[in-house]
Write a sequence for this structure.
């Protein structure tokens, strides 16, 4: 569905350049959630925004690698084609719900706009991004009833099968569909919310509307960049439950980015642990969290406050995230690593599969970028 | 929340009530400035009049100033704006001239909006690059042009070059239809005459363009500045992420918010445009209030007309206040976060 291969992104500010993301690879599949976890400044948001090419370039530059979506490399897609990828192809839920809605338009207008974009592309009124290959077997045509079409993926015109040219939808058609999506994200009293402006809504409400907007375009790939971090714990739980339900309903490939290990453990199928712009460990969630094979993952898990045990002080990791302009040689984690040896200072470890990891087809194998991955389980 | 149409009517009503003291102040100041420092007024006001007029004038001038002001105010409220040296009433002259001026002002305001605002968007979109610099050169050269120079250059060189008329209202002095509104395009359209409508538009192009070119800088610069403020915001990014093309992101999502500040500034400028009309109307022989003002203060070879001059100042003051009022209302309408109360 979406494949990121050896992606590197550099920020150039003045004379200095900062490698924010270095050599990151991953694969997303429909109906599966890949989580990315890491500390602030490890490059996870940069990665999220780089995939739909949303980073302002300059200051950011894609130094190398490929972002393969529907068989086309997004790194080399023209500026004119990029909007066609966004929305229906790759959707995104942002970190800042408070400012992500346009203050000048009512909720209805903003959600209806998303639906209209998808509708126009489905009907072939405007061009949509085709890419080099057809991702799904689109043998079914879009049906008239809205509710049943909620769960169907976006259908670009002309990919396969017959395209239905229907009448232009009226405002009440859009109103009905907007209401469906507002109900989908569990908004109480959607008829009233519809006519309100963003500043009249709470943070949780705005985030739900952002989610409704992203979902209403039926993206093949959905990137959720810390969708719950700005919310209260109670609303966070609600939004998470909602997203989990939606992942099951709408078969979308999801990239879920968070600094919260608990949130990732609950939502993701696979997880990548990022440190200083690199993925240091990757694998199925249960594997990575119960049997970490990178000292950084181990330390990160140990530093997370445990809800069930209250004895003893919280453990903090020694040292701090390295400055991106002065990265350590060799393994980027070596100054903070308890297992450090001479080789760590000289050679860069690659993301190698763990010996004996179960090789299930379609599921990424557990891998770690550490020379001493076998010794990690022995760490305290 | 406080945004239903009845609240808007109340909001406008309140602003209108606030207008009353402002207008009173303007009339007060204008009256006293024109009446305080004159000696031997009557001979200056009525240089050609006979003894009877002079005597009547002196009888009124010798009254205490407050009484004179009260008398003027009462007359004004009765619709009597005084009369000029030859005894011609001021009011009909102004009533005929004002629509022509408003026509000119609205035409140039229209040009400022349809040309100046997109230029500001383009400048912000390519900020720091050559398109931005080109736009800046354009609006700064307008800003730096003295009104008289721009008007004369346009009338003398641009008019013949483009084949556009550079004087008057219509090509013929006598127009075969009644001028109900005294706004040339409107009159021609009311008469249903296409050739005269085209002729009226032809006559409007040069003066409106000069007025717009000189004042456009403020619209462009404000749009550019507020667009640069809006463009890095999160909701512009989410509009882009929806899959909208750059055109809709800029003009529907970003400009809609940037316009809130631009509108306010444009409203204030609209009042200022009137002062520009004095020179432009004189050069282009546009029969508007600017030309009347020029004649009233003794411009050219005309005899000073004090009642007329006071009337023009009051009209200009009303126009400036009204423009600000409209900008205020538009601000409330454009920004949904403003409560109408």
């Amino acid at each position: 569905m979406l494949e990121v291969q050896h992606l590197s992104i550099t920020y150039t500010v003045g004379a200095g350049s900062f490698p924010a993301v270095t050599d990151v690879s991953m694969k997303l599949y429909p109906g599966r959630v890949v989580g990315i976890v890491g500390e602030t400044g490890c490059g996870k948001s940069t990665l999220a925004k780089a995939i739909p090419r949303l980073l302002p370039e300059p200051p950011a530059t894609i130094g190398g690698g490929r972002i393969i979506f529907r068989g086309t490399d997004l790194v080399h897609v023209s500026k004119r084609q990029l909007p066609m990828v966004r929305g229906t192809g790759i959707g995104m839920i942002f970190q800042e719900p408070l400012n992500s809605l346009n203050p000048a338009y009512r909720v209805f207008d903003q959600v209806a706009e998303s639906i209209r974009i998808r509708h126009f592309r489905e009907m072939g009124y405007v061009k949509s991004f085709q890419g080099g290959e057809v991702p799904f077997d689109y043998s079914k045509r879009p049906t008239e009833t809205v509710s049943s079409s909620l769960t169907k993926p976006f259908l670009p015109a002309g990919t396969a099968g017959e395209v239905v040219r229907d009448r232009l939808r009226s405002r009440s058609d859009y109103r009905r569909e907007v209401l469906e999506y507002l109900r989908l994200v569990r908004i109480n009293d959607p008829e009233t919310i519809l006519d309100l402006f963003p500043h009249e809504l709470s943070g949780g409400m705005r985030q739900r509307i952002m989610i409704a907007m992203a979902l209403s375009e039926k993206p093949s790939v959905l990137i959720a960049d810390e969708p719950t971090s700005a919310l209260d714990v109670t609303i966070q739980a609600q939004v998470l439950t909602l997203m989990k339900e939606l992942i099951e309903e709408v078969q979308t490939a999801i990239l879920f980015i968070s600094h919260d290990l608990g949130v990732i453990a609950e939502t993701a199928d696979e997880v990548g642990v990022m440190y200083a712009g690199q993925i240091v460990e990757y694998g199925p969630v249960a594997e990575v969290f119960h049997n970490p094979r990178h000292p950084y993952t181990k330390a990160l898990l140990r530093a997370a406050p445990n809800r069930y045990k209250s004895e003893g002080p919280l453990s903090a990791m020694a040292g701090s995230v390295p400055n991106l302009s002065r990265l350590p040689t060799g393994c980027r984690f070596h100054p903070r690593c308890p297992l450090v040896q001479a080789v760590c200072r000289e050679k860069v470890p690659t993301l190698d599969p763990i010996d004996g990891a179960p090789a299930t087809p379609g599921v990424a194998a557990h891998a770690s970028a550490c020379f001493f991955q076998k010794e990690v389980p022995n760490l305290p | 929340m406080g945004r239903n149409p009845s609240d808007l009517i109340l909001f406008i009503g309140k602003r209108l009530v606030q207008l009353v003291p402002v207008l009173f102040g303007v009339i007060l100041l204008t009256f006293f400035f024109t009446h305080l420092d004159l000696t031997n007024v009557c001979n200056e006001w009525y240089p050609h009049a006979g003894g009877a007029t002079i005597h009547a004038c002196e009888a009124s001038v010798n009254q205490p100033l407050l009484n004179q002001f009260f008398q003027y105010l009462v007359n004004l409220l009765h619709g009597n704006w005084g009369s000029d040296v030859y005894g011609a009433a001021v009011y009909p002259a102004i009533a005929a001239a004002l629509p022509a001026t408003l026509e000119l002002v609205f035409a140039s305001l229209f040009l400022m909006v349809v040309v100046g605002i997109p230029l500001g968007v383009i400048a912000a979109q390519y900020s720091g690059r050559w398109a931005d610099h080109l736009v800046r050169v354009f609006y700064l050269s307008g800003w730096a042009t003295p009104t008289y120079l721009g008007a004369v250059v346009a009338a003398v060189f641009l008019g013949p070059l483009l084949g556009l008329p550079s004087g008057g209202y219509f090509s013929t002095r006598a127009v075969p239809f009644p001028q109900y509104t005294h706004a040339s395009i409107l009159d021609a359209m009311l008469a249903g005459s296409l050739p005269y409508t085209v002729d009226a538009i032809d006559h409007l192009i040069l003066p409106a363009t000069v007025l717009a070119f000189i004042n456009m800088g403020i619209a462009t610069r404000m749009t550019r500045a507020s667009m640069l403020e809006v463009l890095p915001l999160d909701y512009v990014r989410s509009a882009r992420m929806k899959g909208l093309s750059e055109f809709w992101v800029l003009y529907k999502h970003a400009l809609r918010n940037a316009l809130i500040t631009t509108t306010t500034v444009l409203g204030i400028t609209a009042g200022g445009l009137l002062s520009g009309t004095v020179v432009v109307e004189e050069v282009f022989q546009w029969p508007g209030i600017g030309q009347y003002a020029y004649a009233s203060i003794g411009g050219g070879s005309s005899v000073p007309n004090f009642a007329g001059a006071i009337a023009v100042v009051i009209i200009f003051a009303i126009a400036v206040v009204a423009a600000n009022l409209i900008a205020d209302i538009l601000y409330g309408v454009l920004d949904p976060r403003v409560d109408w109360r």
Summary: Residues 39 and 72 of chain B are 19 Å apart (CA to CA). Chain B has one domain: 90-334. Chain B touches chain A through 22 residues (CB under 8 Å). The radius of gyration of chain B is 24 Å.
